[in-house]
Amino acid sequence: xxxxxxxxxxxxxxxxxxxxxxxxxxxxxxxxxxxxxxxxxxxxxxxxxxxxxxxxxxxxxxxxxxxxxxxxxxxxxxxxxxxxxxxxxxxxxxxxxxxxxxxxxxxxxxxxxxxxxxxxxxxxxxxxxxxxxxxxxxxxxxxxxxxxxxxxxxxxxxxxxxxxxxxxxxxxxxxxxxxxxxxxxxxxxxxxxxxxxxxxxxxxxxxxxxxxxx
Length: 214
Known about the structure:
By secondary structure, the chain is mainly β.
């Protein structure tokens, strides 16, 4: 995918029963060769593999026509810069977002359906083939979670280095700060040189834990 980036933004209004984390937490420093924890604004921390790039202070996503857009905070990235013709192109991406006024299943289901727009052609006229898998009910950080997967095939080839196939993984669980629901996204380009194994999404989702102080 070719996600865009913008400066971090302030949080939406938090529910009154939750504390507010206004900006992305500071990057967590770990020894070289360690997996990299990323603290989100939702009172939860997740880990990315050691060969990913920790962009915890960044916002990245896609300009798509959904009620909340396709933007994610506290980002991890793999394979950035692998395509000289499209510098923003990456092979995998992770990030978190907050949702209010919706249950876990509704938040995850709404989020995963964005895959159709994300992987469409730039003009939106050509669409990929998308198969949705889920819901899968899980427990993360001692809380209920719901996971959906979009398996994306036949992606329109309207620019250099665009993958033909991808996975768009979404997990929703209760937020402990800032929003009632945290949505964690993992996007993986498949069957291209240097791509990661799809099991990396399992690793990232299984790493979710309460942030320090929560």
